[in-house]
């Protein structure tokens, strides 16, 4: 049934979705002597609705989002503490814990250098040591509407500050959004209301790499791209950046050697093997990951090519291995550390301000890191 929704019956005015909440409290500031009857009277709803909201149970009472926000606002203003810790977190999300949800589709998981950088930075950025960051995995295509399928931190209900790294799962995010919780996506974008996406500017990354090689006099390039036909936003934007840069500098994109693969080190080796067999031979390579670039570097050296004397190589990520390679790898720095730290600050802000109705994306700047794997163009020796 529909509950009373008359603003005149409520103790407080309805708050707009996304309106600022009061400053975070400590549990010691709250009062536990307030009853559900008092809350129901102040909010202008039935005690059954209050019980349904606070216990997260469906008692056959339909509670609108507007009513839920009004009830929680009344509870917060009265300083009410539910008996259940999960209800405390639903009502005072600023008191909940942080959780970073990682996609099981990311090859290597925590062993992936970029993921390792991201997680380490997120852990360091958590402002309160009493609320450490937890990690959990999720499936990008799994249906989380079925009972018992939710990742543990989502299921237990004591976490309220969720970040996600991987292609967002709409059914999983819907569970969090229904609880009134915002979510920050790190590195991936999805057009879902309530989702804030922080994403490196991949188009700029590819443009910087190509521009650097052109300025060194390279005209014939090899491009090691992601899987053929990929719809992954990162790959699409990197490919777009290559096209933009080639057009800007008058390099016909069809004359460049583009090879597709999974951007692993092995794929980088295989891609360069294929590129070196083509004519005219390229004098420089742009690989859309550091791992693929390091694979290409290894193959080039195995074939007796001097890097950068015979072949310049640029990667994309700036993972630790790029600094210790021989020679050190020129690459585009993707801001994993900056993105993680900003994500922690943003989710901490959003649990107090409330999520926006529309999806929001912020592109983070990238930068070229010039090392010793690139140099002036020279004619590639036949191999």
UniProtKB/TrEMBL annotation:
Residues 1-27 are annotated as: Disordered. One of its GO terms (molecular function) is DNA-binding transcription factor activity. InterPro entries: HTH_LacI, LacI/GalR-like_sensor, Lambda_DNA-bd_dom_sf, Peripla_BP_I. Residues 34-91 form the HTH lacI-type domain. The keyword Nucleus does not apply. Residues 11-23 have a biased composition (Basic and acidic residues). The keyword Transcription regulation applies. PROSITE patterns: HTH_LACI_2 (PS50932). Keywords: DNA-binding, Transcription, Transcription regulation. This is Transcriptional regulator, LacI family. It comes from Chthoniobacter flavus Ellin428.
